[in-house]
Design goal:
This protein has 226 residues and is α+β, with helices and mostly antiparallel strands. The protein folds into two domains: 90 residues, GTP cyclohydrolase I, N-terminal domain (GTP Cyclohydrolase I, Chain A, domain 1, Orthogonal Bundle); 128 residues, GTP Cyclohydrolase I, domain 2 (2-Layer Sandwich). 48% of the residues lie in helices and 21% in strands. The strands form two sheets. Strands 5-2-3-6-7 form a five-stranded mixed beta sheet, sandwiched between helices. A hairpin with a 5-residue loop joins strand 2 and strand 3. It is elongated. The N and C termini lie far apart (57 Å). It binds zinc ion. Zinc ion binds next to loops.
Length: 226
């Protein structure tokens, strides 16, 4: 108990002395401009590292331990540069389109795109596959760009339904066609590893528009991604 009170005292000090100061200065900036544009990555990493240090101390972890002392900085960097890099518009992929000179007018399917996203309710991974299809209106997209686009929206705290819609919308816009389909099949670790602890279930979300609303086209797509 005695140790705990020392711990919490330190924790308070951290919040008051380091975190609140940093946080309020950022809050001011946020109210002036778009948060995601204005706060640069280095500033974000600094604030998150301080907060994460507080979390670790509240959990009773010894931050003087060699193995742990770099963790707040590591986690903060991982959040900003990797897990949540899709919150920074600078990382939005530039989409280049090519003329569809082969007159290929059937669907193009990009299947089994690896998905690592993060549930915004628990901040734990959503792991799965994304399948995308479109029918060209005269332009085709570089295939790797579809993957990049998926990753951009995945690298945010997400809910699967919104992620599905965001990918579909971005593709419709980039390709200038409504004929787009997106299917996501994913396991949520907040369901698999905690709470209900159901390791066998996955969540499937779909978004069909344009020609993919047609039963035959939809069926063809679903057969191809089986
Ligand atoms: Zn969750």
């Amino acid at each position: 108990m005695k140790n705990n009170s020392v711990l919490y005292k330190n924790f308070d000090e951290i919040f008051l002395d380091e975190i609140e100061t940093d946080y309020s200065s950022i809050s001011e900036k946020v109210s002036q401009e778009d948060e995601r544009v204005f706060i640069n990555d280095d500033e974000k990493i600094k604030v998150i590292a301080n907060h994460f240090k507080g979390i670790m101390q509240a959990l009773g972890l010894d931050l003087n331990d060699d193995s742990l002392k770099g963790t707040p900085q590591r986690v903060a960097k991982m959040y900003v540069k990797e897990f949540f890099s899709g919150l920074n518009p600078v990382n939005e992929p530039k989409i280049t389109l090519f003329e569809n000179k082969y007159q290929y007018n059937k669907m193009v399917v990009e299947k089994d795109i690896t998905l690592y996203s993060y549930c915004e309710h628990h901040f734990v991974p959503i792991i799965g596959k994304v399948h995308v299809a479109y029918i060209s209106k005269g332009k085709v997209i570089g295939l790797s760009k579809i993957n990049r686009l998926v990753q951009y929206y995945a690298k945010r705290p997400q809910v699967q339904e919104r992620l599905t819609n965001q990918i579909a919308k971005a593709l419709r816009k980039a390709l200038g066609t409504e004929d787009v389909a997106v299917v996501i099949d994913a396991v949520h670790l907040c369901v698999a590893s905690r709470g209900i602890k159901d390791t066998g279930s996955s969540t499937i979300t779909v978004q069909y528009s344009g020609k993919f609303i047609n039963e035959e086209t939809k069926h063809e797509f679903l057969e191809l991604i089986k």
